[in-house]
Amino acid sequence: MEVKKIDDTQITNAIDLIWQTFLQFEAPDYSEEGVKSFQDFIENKEIIKTLEFWGAYDEEELKGVIATNENRKHICCFFVKAQYQRQGIGRKLWDFLRENSSSKTITVNSSPYAVPVYHKLGFVDTDTEQLSDGMLYTPMQFIK
User: What is the pLDDT of residue 71?
Assistant: First the structure.
């Protein structure tokens, strides 16, 4: 398993992985408005250009993605394909980000589904669950 930067030639694969995994695990917790908001976000090419994407590759297969903004201070997307979850891929991506971010604090707005995962990675809630544009999330942070 290798973590490497996702370049422009691979971004479509990364967005597809994010969308398919979102539909399977996140969308059931969201309203139609929330699902549409997330879709609009990942399909917005201007926003996507501002993010930094890293992928977990096994051979040439992309198995997981983590995307950040604000110079690796905030996690925008963090998804592992369903069949590869609970195999340490997310941990590998997280460890890579943590070790390669100069920020002392890393934040995320976690979906309801992912809250226990982030807790396991050492994140703590900074507020109660919020609702914005139909999307439920819990603001969280990790302090190095």
Answer: 87
d(CA 36, CA 18): 14
Q: Is the separation of the CB atoms in 2 and 64 below 8 Å? A: no
Is the distance from CB of 48 to CB of 39 less than 8 angstroms?
no
Q: Mean pLDDT over residues 16-29, rounded?
A: 94
Residue 13's H or E segment, with its range, is helix 11-21
Polymer length of the chain: 144
Listed in sequence order, the residues at least 6 apart from 47 whose beta carbon sits closer than 8 Å to its beta carbon are 41
- Whether 27 shows a pLDDT value over 90: the answer reads yes
C-beta atoms surrounding 6 within 10 Å: 22
Joined together, the tokens standing for residue 77 give: 């997307």
Q: 46: part of which helix (H) or strand (E)? A: helix 45-50
- Half-sphere exposure in the Cβ direction for 76 (13 Å, CA): 19
Asked whether the whole model's pTM tops 0.85, one would answer yes
Please name the amino acid found at residue 42.
I
Q: In whole angstroms, give the CA distance from residue 66 to residue 24.
A: 17
Q: Map tokens 């590869």 to a residue.
A: 84
